[in-house]
Amino acid sequence: MTIDVVGVSKRFKSFTALDNVSLHVRSGELVALLGPSGSGKTTLLRIIAGLDWPDAGEVRFDGEDALERTVRDRNVGFVFQHYALFRHLNVFENVAFGLRVRTGKDKVPDATIRAKVEELLHLVQIDWLADRYPGQLSGGQRQRVALARALAISPRVLLLDEPFGALDAKVRKELRRWLRQLHEELPVTSLLVTHDQEEALELADRVVVMGHGRIEQVGTPSEVYDNPATAFVHDFIGETLALPTDVRDGRLYAGDKPLALDSQGVADGPARLLARPHDVDLADPDAAPFAGRVLAVRTFGPTRRADIEIPGRNGPVVVEAAVPHQQDLPTGGLIGLVPRRYRVFNANA
Amino acid sequence: MSVAEIAPPAATPARVVRRAPPVHTEPAGVRIAIIAVALTFLALVIGLPLVLVFVQAFAKGWQAYVAALVDPDALAAIELTLIVAAISVALNLVFGLVASWCIAKFEFPGKSFLITLIDLPFSVSPVVAGLVFILLFGSQGLLGPFLQDNDIKIVFALPGIVLATVFVTFPFVARELIPLMQEQGTAEEEAAISLGASGLSTFFRVTLPNVKWALLYGVLLCNARAMGEFGAVSVVSGHIRGLTNTMPLQIEILYNEYQFAASFAVASLLALLALVTLCAKTLLEKRIAKDH
Ligand SMILES: Nc1ncnc2c1ncn2[C@@H]1O[C@H](COP(=O)(O)OP(=O)(O)O)[C@@H](O)[C@H]1O
Ligand SMILES: [Mg+2]
């Protein structure tokens, strides 16, 4: 099922949580909504599910208006951020809930419910927990129950709000791969909210980067990582080394020093040159466009990082540069920085 | 290799026996004295009167005790009390549940006013509450002529007693449910409707089971108060023997007539109710802690 969000806006009192958001999700896709906390991800997900209503805009499932249908009739599987399992029902009854509440001509016979729930518990690999109550489960197990419960109504759209948010790092990684596999096996279109970039980049077919209630960029994981459309996306995804610069007459300056670097068409005024740390070489301070003092060098695992203090517009700024393992870098000394790949953005944007 | 090299650092064994310092710093004597004062106070103010009620009730022996309870007026008072409590508790169960549900799960204008209103019976003297009902429904009252014309009796009859009791005991259920429902939030309800449940089905399958123990707790307190209410009921009842006297009123009448043993015999039933309520309350509190 395709999902279309067209020009959706949502305000809470005077606060704009979503500002003219448009998004197309293809049938069978797994799309991640990625953004910092408070960027409006949950709000967008709730509007798609029908738990909230937009002030303006449209939501369409397979081209049909979804806003005129209530959450009951949208047949959307929703996995809540804190799972929202029914605390007084055991795992089996939690999963069975969506089938039990069907009445009249839609009533599901007990035997069918039992078969379906058992099948789902098997699918999410927790058959042996059927009699437990939510309070007796670990975070990862609750997550699986929440997913099985959402899948019980055979939804064609699956919405997951930070499904791994409450889990520890190792469990997260495991479940992530498992969820991807599950998505492949089921005929669903999935939309997953996360603030964890690694999760989004590893799991999703496409990533939607959100900031301040707006969509900053939509693209494949490698597109948003390698070609960030805005400074916000560059900062938010991956590590960023930000160098203060100015554009004057279409040329790039570091303070008063003209740089032999491309200003990339950015308008005159203060600008930021953004690069991935591994795209910035260390060099002789006199020959490099940027130079600064080494404050500290840290090594952890395969990476080595140096805090370098460079002069900025309003006092010195500290940037974190990648340091090759064999290079000797005394603290207190001067070092030059040469960006190989970089993007220039207006500092006020 | 010398022993000194392989021996653990000297501090290690010490750490095993070292315990966290106690959080209280008072010497043991002071602590015991404080506890003793508290216990003595409780014994004097609560324990002793309770014992005295039973001592007085049985002062003239078993036969007198039983005779006092099977006295027709006493039986009528017990019956009336049970009827009033049953009706009031049932009404307040429904009112309290609906009110807390609205308050905890929805946003609407006038919500804080409603919360204040629920607390009103706690802050108003029951006698004043009773008088208000007289002013409304009494023969000289606002609706008096209308009620008389239609031959409806409210004051000095069962409806008035129930009204007064409902008013006085209204907060018990709602007060118990609102904080729990607010804490539980609306996530489970949202999950239920996203799974296709109707509003009613969500209420009975999710909301109600989640608060059932707290609800029972509220009902218990509500019932205890409904049976024991004196002030408001005293004003609206009219003290008609064998007809509009509840147990607390009957106790007062007997006492005023110097029938101490009979008075305390009826009182012992209320004291018993208090003890049962207390036990049930303690058990329920454990269940409710689980729902939080
Ligand atoms: N019911 C609400 N009332 C008022 N403000 C809200 C409500 N829901 C969300 N917001 C605000 O909208 C913004 C976006 O929230 P949300 O969609 O939950 O962000 P995210 O899921 O990306 O962290 C936040 O600043 C939040 O405070
Ligand atoms: Mg959120």
From TrEMBL, chain A:
Membrane-crossing residue ranges in chain numbering: none
Coiled coil: none
Gene Ontology MF annotations: ABC-type sulfate transporter activity; ATP binding; ATP hydrolysis activity
Keywords from the named record: ATP-binding, Nucleotide-binding, Sulfate transport, Translocase, Transport
ABC transporter domain segment(s): 3-237
GO cellular component entries: ATP-binding cassette (ABC) transporter complex
NCBIfam families, alphabetized: 3a0106s01
Protein family membership: Belongs to the ABC transporter superfamily.
Official protein name in the record: Sulfate/thiosulfate import ATP-binding protein CysA
Species lineage: Bacteria, Pseudomonadati, Pseudomonadota, Alphaproteobacteria, Hyphomicrobiales
Gene: cysA
Automatic annotation (TrEMBL), chain B:
Keywords: Cell inner membrane, Cell membrane, Membrane, Sulfate transport, Transmembrane, Transmembrane helix, Transport
InterPro entries assigned to the protein according to its UniProt record, in alphabetical order: CysW_permease, MetI-like, MetI-like_sf, Sulph_transpt2
Predominant cellular place of this UniProt entry's protein: membrane
Signal peptide positions on this chain: none
Record keyword Cell inner membrane present: yes
Top-level taxonomic group: Bacteria
All copies of domain ABC transmembrane type-1, residue ranges: 78-285
UniProt xrefs under Pfam families: BPD_transp_1
Membrane-spanning residues: 28-55, 75-101, 113-134, 154-174, 260-280
Record GO terms (molecular function): ABC-type sulfate transporter activity
UniProt xrefs under SUPFAM superfamilies: MetI-like
Assembly behavior: The complex is composed of two ATP-binding proteins (CysA), two transmembrane proteins (CysT and CysW) and a solute-binding protein (CysP).
Summary of the function given for this chain in its UniProt record: Part of the ABC transporter complex CysAWTP (TC 3.A.1.6.1) involved in sulfate/thiosulfate import. Probably responsible for the translocation of the substrate across the membrane.
Protein topology in the membrane: Multi-pass membrane protein
GO cellular component: plasma membrane
Compartments (UniProt record): Cell inner membrane
UniProt name for this protein: Sulfate transport system permease protein CysW
